[in-house]
């Protein structure tokens, strides 16, 4: 069959609506990878200690800007880490700052550096009401932490136990259901009324959970929420390429040094910032939907966050290259997703 698919695509410069940049030497190592592709990114606040105050976000923002390589334009969109004790006034300060664009809910214990997260949303009612009033988005790590719930069901159960009651109580609260991984979440977001959207990672569009266990346990494919079965992956691809304005790009690139991943109790997180747009191009191309990539990567996110779309463009070509086996970071090494593998698309 003749291949009529395009060999290159140029889109408006994209943004990453969910990114872990870390701090210090790791920040310096990973930031250039994101800044080469993305004009802006929603920066996760799960540092140690977490970014809970607008003043801390201001200082972190300055450290990020100082790490942007000469000649690249990159704007960090900051977030605060919601705790049981976040004061309503902190939300007002965040809104007034102009640089805080979301408040992140980590259920306590759900993932990396989430110990200080929310133990019960009932503690946050007043704070959430102020967010609703000011149009400050709530960014959700949407998994329950109940150890009785199967790891693979934690997102679906979160919808019933947390998200639906929350949205009934606060129907105007702007919500981003981040890094969705299930057909349940995709269906919930596309069918809901009101201000809710979702981000989807490249790795959840490309892989199912078999990838974690191919030929042995492969820690670099372990992230949270964990990869799910193939039917879920297909539902995510359908949602991302559907043309719906409720789904947009969020890499959840989450760097950990090699030693933290390759050990008896390895950290969750995949490093995809190096080749994020190339992976998204591969995923969209696989279902002949490259024509939908710009809306997903460059339009839906800013529209939802009520920010201007970017000017400038990014071009991707069908041109295979090999991802290095490891990348230098902090005097040690970082193993990217797809280490040593061939990547079919390349950024121009
Ligand atoms: C993230 C990290 O390492 O900070 N890990 C991950 O697997 N995605 C935390 C998170 O977003 O859950
Ligand atoms: Zn994340």
How would the blueprint of this fold be written?
Elements: E1 8-12, E2 16-19, H1 24-37, E3 40-43, H2 54-67, E4 75-81, H3 88-97, E5 100-105, H4 125-134, E6 138-140, H5 154-169, E7 175-177, H6 183-191, E8 196-200, H7 202-206, H8 230-240, E9 247-249, H9 258-261, H10 276-286, H11 293-305, E10 313-322, E11 327-329, E12 332-334, E13 342-347
Parallel strand pairs: 2-3, 3-4, 4-5, 5-6, 6-7, 7-8, 8-9
Antiparallel strand pairs: 1-10, 10-13, 11-12
Helix pairs in contact: 3-4, 6-8
The chain binds N-carbamoyl-L-aspartate and zinc ion (ZN).
Zinc ion is lined by residues 18, 20, 44, 252, 254.
What hetero molecules are in the model? Answer: N-carbamoyl-L-aspartate, zinc ion
Envelope shape: globular
> Which second-level CATH architecture applies?
Alpha-Beta Barrel
What structural class results from the helix and strand content?
alpha/beta
CATH class: Alpha Beta
Strand content: 15-25%
Number of separate domains: 1
Spatial strand sequence of the major β-sheet: 2-3-4-5-6-7-8-9
> What is Rg?
19 Å
| Poorly predicted segments | none
Number of helices, counting only DSSP H or I runs of 4 residues or more:
11
Question: On the 0-100 scale, what is the average pLDDT?
Answer: 97
User: Helix content range of the residues, please?
Assistant: 25-40%
How far is the N terminus from the C terminus? 27 Å
